[in-house]
Amino acid sequence: MTILCVRFQLPSAHEAAFPELLGLLEEFTPVVEALPPDGALADLRGAERYFGRGAVELASVIRVRALALYGVDCVIGAGPGPMLARVAQRAARPGVTCAVSAGEARDFLAGKPVAVLPGVGAATARTLCEYGLDTLGRVAAAPLSTLQRLVGAKAGRELHEKANGVDRGRVVPNAVSSSLAAERRFPRDELDPVRHRRALLSAGEELGARLRAVEKVCRALTLTVRYADRSSTTRVRTLGEPTAHSADLTRTAYSLYEALGLQRARVRAIALRAEGLGPADRASHQLTFDPVDEKARRIEEVADRARAKFGPRAVMPGGLAA
């Protein structure tokens, strides 16, 4: 078991610590893959030899350091490959690492729903369930040809291997997260467009604050709307210029939402993802000489300082003090 999947239990006030937590993992291994907004994969093959300890022991050290240095607990799964480590992480709990060896993989996966596998989306899971293949054990026992007819040749082969515990994935280092996401779930399926827009405003404010906290700008924005029947719609838009300005992100989110033309859609959740992140100090900003825009940016700076000092609840959506 040489791969760890670490999910940091980051409260909103500590979200800016994510890059530093990645740095903590890099003290053990340079092979770290960020899984925004709060997770990472770490390949410990070299670390096991260097420190003379197994992956589970090193996971305990990582947990203690995260708590001691940042006050952040974490949930950790360990496995021989990234896929098994990620599934193990879902079965873990704070303080106890869930470890799965190669020999235990098939039995560990057998009773789990097909949707637990990374890369198996709602549509694929729904197709498999319609044919009675609702658990990974049943998928593993199904003929390869049957799976390929249902989901395609390549996807069917990969699904068959994963369900049988074959993990061919690898950890791909990425020192900088390429995206940040904010999701808003409704307590019940929501029909009211006003509440949809309110969720977009809140998510846009959160994304802007998080981008500014890590001194990044984004080049594109993705909107995903999830419906009551578990289907979803995704739209992407490239921004006119890289930005971390909450108002710009929110306006783009509103535009994407309006372009969907939803009519009495029962929406379960709305998610925004900032894509193509880059350093804020290298981004150009078109001067507009618009006093309203300049005032909004100054208010944003004040709100960020209040948020950093008093926590995220110190500022309400729209940059107003609570």
The coarse overall form would be globular
Report the major sheet: 5 strands, mixed
How many strands appear in the DSSP assignment?
12
Provide the gyration radius in Å.
Answer: 22 Å
Straight-line N-to-C gap: 48 Å
* Alpha-beta content class: alpha+beta
Mean pLDDT: 84
Q: Number of helical segments?
A: 12
pLDDT < 50 runs, ≥5 residues? 318-322
Q: Per DSSP, what share of the residues sits in E-state strands of 2 or more residues?
A: 15-25%
Overall description:
This protein has 322 residues and is α+β, with helices and mostly antiparallel strands. Helix content is 43%, strand content 23%. It contains twelve helices and twelve strands. It has helices at 18-26, 45-51, 55-70, 82-91, 105-110, 122-130, 136-141, 144-151, 153-163, 193-213, 246-260, 291-310, and strands at 3-8, 32-35, 39-43, 74-79, 98-99, 179-190, 216-227, 232-243, 267-275, 278-279, 315-316, 320-321. The strands form three sheets. Strands 2-3-1-4-5 form a five-stranded mixed sheet. Helix 8 packs across helix 9 (153-163) and helix 10 packs antiparallel against helix 11. The longest helix is centred in the middle third of the chain and has 21 residues, at 193-213. The protein is globular and about 60 Å long. It starts with a strand and ends with a strand. Residues 318-322 have low confidence and may be disordered.
